[in-house]
Amino acid sequence: DTEVTQTPKHLVMGMTNKKSLKCEQHMGHRAMYWYKQKAKKPPELMFVYSYEKLSINESVPSRFSPECPNSSLLNLHLHALQPEDSALYLCASGIFPPGDNQPQHFGDGTRLSIL
Amino acid sequence: AQKITQTQPGMFVQEKEAVTLDCTYDTSDPSYGLFWYKQPSSGEMIFLIYQGSYDQQNATEGRYSLNFQKARKSANLVISASQLGDSAMYFCAMRPASGGSYIPTFGRGTSLIVHP
How far apart are CA B93 and CA B107, in angstroms? Predict the structure, then answer.
């Protein structure tokens, strides 16, 4: 079982809906990441939180709104998404700053479909 | 800037045989780390193995080993005795060593299919 838990595993929503993706980790990691991944492609970084503060936003459209309410939780609020936003959304966590040999730890992802 | 190249979009291997997945990289950082991840169809990215640029020996973790050739800037993953459960996407990633950007750069991935 993964140590990073993402819910829901699958989500289908219309373009006018508002929904949220959730991510939780209890490894004491102080960096948390959101990635978007299309099929057969590498993950693309969206946001990074370090010590609960947004440190990186990779020019993501405002219809995606991240939130880090505490050191264990990371949310991604979704509103007015487009069909091209359909993808696997991966959450990851890691030690901050990471040691040389310390990898990111990923969740199972949320498969999002926009109708 | 860093760049990771995985030239094999798809690979096939017979069960119980060994397979090598290629990864070449380019970086101006003097020290860096290389990571391999496995992604089954379920979606989770699973960390497999790490190689530091100053490590004297090639990394090994169970059936996984790295063929690290620093002069050639390559870090190929070798999977010995392939199993059906090894069928997945495999991503090579690089990150500068401590003090640099902590965001890894991923390659495009290789899809591995293990035949019975």
Answer: 6
